Amino acid sequence: MPEYKAPLRDMRFLIDNVFDFHGHYAALGATDASPDMVNAILEEGAKFCENVLSPLNRSGDEEGCHFDNGVVTTPRGFKEAFAQYVEGGWHGVAADPAYGGQGLPQSLGLVLSEMIGSSNTSWGMYPGLTHGAMSAIHAHGTAEQKDIFLGKLTAGEWTGTMCLTEAHCGTDLGLIKTRAVPQADGSYAVTGSKIFISAGEHDMSANIIHLVLAKLPDAPAGTKGISLFIVPKFHADSGERNAVNCGAIEHKMGIKASATCVLNFDGAKGFLIGEANKGLNCMFTMMNHARLGTGMQGLCNGEASFQGAIKYANDRLQMRSLTGAKAPDKAADPIIVHPDVRRMLLTMKAFNEGNRALTYFTAQLLDTAHLSSDAGQRQEAEDLLAFLTPICKAFMTDTGLEVTNHGMQVFGGHGYIREWGMEQLARDARIAPIYEGTNGIQALDLLGRKVLGSQGKLLRGFTKIVHKFCAANAEHAQLKSYVAQLNQLNQQWGELTSQVGMAAMKNPDEVGAAAVDYLMYSGYIILAYLWLRMAIAAQGHGDAEFAKAKLATCEFYFKRLLPRTATHRAAVEAGSECLMSLSAAAFMLE
Amino acid sequence: MPEYKAPLRDMRFLIDNVFDFHGHYAALGATDASPDMVNAILEEGAKFCENVLSPLNRSGDEEGCHFDNGVVTTPRGFKEAFAQYVEGGWHGVAADPAYGGQGLPQSLGLVLSEMIGSSNTSWGMYPGLTHGAMSAIHAHGTAEQKDIFLGKLTAGEWTGTMCLTEAHCGTDLGLIKTRAVPQADGSYAVTGSKIFISAGEHDMSANIIHLVLAKLPDAPAGTKGISLFIVPKFHADSGERNAVNCGAIEHKMGIKASATCVLNFDGAKGFLIGEANKGLNCMFTMMNHARLGTGMQGLCNGEASFQGAIKYANDRLQMRSLTGAKAPDKAADPIIVHPDVRRMLLTMKAFNEGNRALTYFTAQLLDTAHLSSDAGQRQEAEDLLAFLTPICKAFMTDTGLEVTNHGMQVFGGHGYIREWGMEQLARDARIAPIYEGTNGIQALDLLGRKVLGSQGKLLRGFTKIVHKFCAANAEHAQLKSYVAQLNQLNQQWGELTSQVGMAAMKNPDEVGAAAVDYLMYSGYIILAYLWLRMAIAAQGHGDAEFAKAKLATCEFYFKRLLPRTATHRAAVEAGSECLMSLSAAAFMLE
Prior knowledge:
The structure is a homodimer of 590-residue chains. With 590 residues, chain A is an alpha+beta fold. Helices cover 57% and strands 10% of the residues of chain A.
């Protein structure tokens, strides 16, 4: 298993040189997020992830979770690591101080989350889901609900879940069958079966607080009739067991140490949170955060995979360089001398560092949306977040999967063997394009709801930033040709969008036909912008080798990865007809 | 698990309408391969694969192989299935009648292999490796060696292996350490340790015949000092156990029911096969076949995945079509109405059917190379085979992996759950781009050895075919715009090759830098040619729906997949500098 080392140099580069986190925090009045505090989070967070979580990653995969008559046991060491994490105060880093949190900006929470996810994706699911539940309760709960639940959740005594999916519906939540019947005491009796509930049952906390989508008896049909309920495993007052039980855990391709549960609610006592029939809206308010977190899993598994691959490529001796032996004293050259191995490593590096920049860029927007005192600024940040979130989720997870596959390939046959840990990363990475809204759904959200739904306004909010950047750097000595290339793509982006918009007015299927390629096309342009920002910022970096590497990786990105936009554009332009002309029957075989 | 149904309609379409197998067999004098015989292989082979192998696929994955003190047990039912397979005469379909085979053309063997690999990839490894060993012995063994080994191998009483890789070398076989010391009786004492030996030890046959690469004491260094030895598990004469033992089996990402063994040779008695120090050449003579077989695994897993996905897409109800309800009587529309689901399904269909056409096209060349009485024709077929083999291996396995990933994605969360079987196909498919020479190595073989090594001659052998085809169909009523597009790409292919060739004369790293993208670029053009052939041939097909589907899928291929050539071309043209400028140290993190 690759031993995780937090990429602190790159993180500090983004924090200090590219995105000026200190100025950003100062402007938002987030005085607690001082340079010393940021440094402490980086240093101590890295130690915890490297020393506690990383060593449990492979054993967690091998052991998996165990289910026995409703009881779920997490792999050896998971429970203890969670206790240490809580003890270290990590769980409440970005939580509300009113309920025991440290109140640091969301962006710092995400910096920490990357390290957690890179060292142990499965383990990270437990606190991750709890943070999701905390956000929902914080945003929509009554004062009493917050008092009852948020303190214990922040303290890590209790953990949380989000219960959406049922066997017959995932994307189409309007179809859910779970019912909530009002009781005389103001509570609800929740009955139904939920599947794919991460952290739905486990042994890491004293109680589990489920946030459950269900329908009231008189609810309108479809998504407008869904409400959200808090259903604790143990009643908060009496401590007695509620009528919710884990019926099974799933056997999955990866994230095997994350318990994915079937939860049966049998008239369980629940409490309405937020307005009746507005449950989906409540869920959506925390989606930005959750989707960014899921997007980051692409980065996390990609980073871990790169760390394994780069080490192996330097150690493994195989064949001689075609331009003459590079390690003549050894039996063969290390494989990093071979251009095709470098192609894979640079692809990994360019995506990881680009995706990290995208994460940090977006994380700052989260801060601004939460903390700015300027309503206009908050709205601008919200708009950019709405635009970027589906791209973060889908682009980062698709490219993350590609990265982990390159990582395996660098190892050759050893990449396929479990003991090396590289294949686990590819298996763990494979869920991220699926859950939290499939990447296809993200793409529809981006193109249909966000871009076309705003008549292009949300797109223009971003292209304007790129346009300004290109104008400001049009004469950059080393990079002007790349700036020009970005500027041209930025214009083309708008044109392509108008084209699809026109076509969609005549035929709504044009949106679905274009969506995934449109999202990937957008992601490549956004990363190009971020890569240029990094290449420029790196010129002021004290470490000349580091600066050179950033420049070289930027160049690689523009020459070898950005051309993929041409293919995605062509696919978008191909339109829906070639997708829709076949009858469903004609797809079949016999 | 998707229940496998052999795609007989598509197979017959290729055999009858596209490639005229009957005329092909008649021209080669392969009279045994009569239409009735072909039909029997298709019908009966399908039954065996559907009824015997397919039901063992998922249980084989769950059980895996068991290792206990040198003894390997295959999953429940594997041994019995092998006995049935041998009993049915399937093992010797394409084997030499002089040793008990049926002597049918290789192409028929491959038609059968596809069905085997699609229904159970892991199981298919055991006969597959045996066929490899049989080819090597047939091509290079002495008459005595053939007499001793080929009969039993053809009969399936014994099975075979190919022992190349050692812990420190896979690609770079010049580094092998296994030694063979001549003995007074003319045999050799073979000592060393081999890893990743598929079917190296198991319970399916009475004896296992290992073909082992080793070095003689006086061997020249590197690949020119490697010899090939036959090392039986039990001595053919005495039946006593030889000094070869299985030290362990690997725990892998997939193909878990295929025993991947560490084999320890401890002065084992072996017999030189072929000339001393020419062992690698002996291996290479069977590589074409083995690599085509591995390439087919991309098709096999892709086909199985498509069968699962198409069924699910018709069954699963989720959301309404944006152009109005298509199944208003149901709770939601089947997901096949959604354009993005169709994008995934059509991508799968276009690659699978294209890859099947590529397999059949190449299989005919194998026949011609083996059976033609015309030396010129044989040479032409050999040249085309040399050119196409690395493309079959790498392009088909890379696209096969993509296909199985789409298959998972169509299933949403259920795609990640083991019981549905879709994730197994993606895990099983993941080995194919790695073994039998990584796809990076295939690409070097194609561009460096085959294309540039022949001064473009091997490429021109193929582009000439495409050129003629385009000339003949330039005025095709429905397809002429695609024909023109293919014709243009075909010219560009030559130009791009010259460009790389020029660059490579100055800098050999240009080959490695371009190779993988060049191979994929080539693969997409070849599939475009084959898709047009299919679309044209389909017009004469009796089933109008089938013909329409071929035309629509061809159109989809040209509009949505072929544009990927633009990206690959740009990557080729980017050259090596952006890969080579970074120092190995600068890749590292801290």
